[in-house]
Amino acid sequence: MAIEYDGLVTEGLAKQISEKIRDAILDGRLAVDARLPTEDELASRFSVSRPTIREALKRLAAQNLIRSRRGPTGGTFVTRPTREEARASVATAAALLVAMGEFQLDDIIEGRCLFETASCRLAALRRTDVDLEHLQAEVLRLREADLADADFCASDVRFHRHLVAAAHNPALDYAAASLIDSLQPILNLVVYKDRDRRAVAAELQSIVDALQLRQADAAVSALETYFAMLARQCRGMAAAHRSNRTAERSHG
User: What global pTM score does this model have?
Assistant: First the structure.
């Protein structure tokens, strides 16, 4: 078996065991559909209790790295997460880090701007008519006068996802899980009340128009304008929040 069974310390045994098995899967030492030893065998080899093994396996199952099957030919097997499952896991982790204060809003905007401008340049070369249809549909939705705030924010997220998808690079599409799927909704939550919907729709329309003509520089310029506008709104909200807190302390 290609799992390293030694080197455990007494604290967090289930976590360490799950990481050792995870490393064996990610390194290719355990192939997809390979059958893991039984719980008893794993408990014996790791010199731990069966409940500890069960907890380790639960951790791996939560990451979609293993699956269980009952019956005479059953057992626990290595599985391969789908791209969507992997993206969802990354997005969840990124959202958690933001909630814990690991990323500042300016950092998020700067990172997304760099990431999406690179995607935008590729999209200008590789976009298809279907890509343009997806992007244009979201712009038209954003222009609906009676669109609810939540629907406006969701449409904005979808536009940026379609923009990255138009680059037709699977690695970029995967990276978008953390930079767009989880972080864009958080930015929208901060500034949605102060957003100029017409200005947002206008800049996104400019991106679509430039992509249609395969003008990368023009598309990137419109995208940078969009992010500059978003950054100003975030800074304005932050300043207002600081001012309110100062006022509350002075009255307290």
Answer: 0.67
- Angstrom distance (rounded) from CA 221 to CA 80: 39
Residues 50 and 101 in one domain: no
Domain count within the chain: 2
What's the chain's length in residues?
Answer: 252
Give the range of the structural domain holding residue 19, as residue numbers without chain letter. 13-78
- The arithmetic mean of pLDDT across residues 40-55, rounded, is 94
Report d(CA 145, CA 231) in Å as an integer. 24
Q: What is the CATH number of the domain that holds 186?
A: 1.20.120.530
Torsion of CA 231, 233, 236, 242, to 10 degrees: -80
The pLDDT assigned to 112 comes to: 87
Cα–Cα distances in angstroms (integers) from residue 159 to residues 114, 140, 141, 173, in the given order: 17, 11, 10, 13
